[in-house]
Amino acid sequence: MATLQEKKNNFKRIAESRTNKIISSIESLGNLSNSSYYEYTTEQIELIFDSIQHELNIQKEKFKDKEKKKKKKFRL
Questions:
Q1: Domain membership flag for residue 12
Q2: What number of helices (H) and strands (E) belong to the chain?
């Protein structure tokens, strides 16, 4: 079984890697804004970013739920 320090280190290592991949993908998405190469509507852009924001909200709630569960534990 992993120690608390190992769990913290694993989280940090994996979170940094995954966050950097997400940031890179978002930057890549931003390249689509070049109107010399792409044609898009305001509605399409809104749909893209609404969808991304929706998923971010869902994932953020998962972390909040874990924090709430920890606070509800009863101890004497």
A1: yes
A2: 2, 0
Residues 6+ apart with CB under 8 A from 50: none
| pLDDT tens digits, 14-37 | 999 999 999 999 999 999 999 999
Q: How many angstroms separate the CA atoms of 45 and 36, rounded?
A: 16
Residue 74: inside a domain: no
**Domain count along the chain:** 1
- The helix/strand/coil state of 35 is coil
Considering the domain boundaries, does residue 58 fall inside one?
Answer: yes
What residues contact residue 29 under an 8 Å CB cut-off, 6+ apart? Answer: 48
pTM of the predicted model as reported, rounded to 2 decimal places: 0.77
